[in-house]
Specification:
mainly beta, 5-stranded antiparallel β-sheet, about 0% helix, disordered C terminus
């Protein structure tokens, strides 16, 4: 299973860019969730996508945005041993326009699920409370993706980051369940290209 995260902002451009297409090796990915926070005069967006049984090898993930973004970043993590249907196991999103803690609770249903979370904030360099897989800092924004697992027993898993000053932020989380036993292979990365 391939879990892809993407974040972008449009400060100070004043537009509202969306993802018009996201593909892995020319095949469209499935959306889990997209969320936006709108602190005037800008906005920030975070999205999570996935693909079951992606082709192996060094393939490219291509993200096409509807308009130019001030900051845009993305990355991916591969997992082996996941269920091929019924994914994601769970998902949740949290947003805020203030605060030094960025967090989302994802309540897993299946034992030994892995939790992934994608954050987007206004460049406050958050410190992760879990394993960071990638991070992009550019312009006025910052995006990243972290993982934690396997979650045993199933239940609430909090994905969180702390910042040194107030930030507006989005955290978009999802979990992926194993066929049996434990999901493995987290941390394999793919090349991602963002087209504006």
């Amino acid at each position: 299973l391939l879990a892809v995260g993407q974040g972008h902002d449009n400060y100070p451009n004043g537009g509202y860019s969306t993802i018009t297409s996201i593909k892995y090796n020319t095949v469209a990915l499935t959306s889990i969730n997209t969320a936006t926070v709108n602190p005037d005069p800008s906005w920030f967006r975070s999205s999570v996508y996935y693909m079951v049984a992606p082709s192996s090898g060094a393939n490219t993930i291509e993200v096409v945005l509807s308009a130019t973004a001030n900051t845009a970043g993305g990355g991916a993590v591969s997992y082996t041993g996941t269920k091929q249907t019924g994914q994601p196991d769970a998902q949740n999103v949290a947003t805020s326009t203030t605060g030094t803690t960025q967090s989302v609770d994802v309540t897993t249903s299946d034992d030994s699920s892995w939790v992934v979370a994608v954050f987007m904030d206004n460049g406050q360099d958050p410190t992760p409370g879990q394993t960071q897989r990638w991070e992009v800092v550019s312009g006025t924004g910052e995006a990243g993706q972290d993982t934690d697992g396997p979650k045993t027993p199933s239940g609430v898993q909090t994905m969180s980051w702390t910042t040194v000053s107030n930030a507006f932020w989005i955290v978009n989380g999802a979990s992926f369940a194993p066929v049996t036993g434990v999901v493995s292979g987290a941390g394999l990365k793919r090349k991602i290209i963002i087209i504006e």
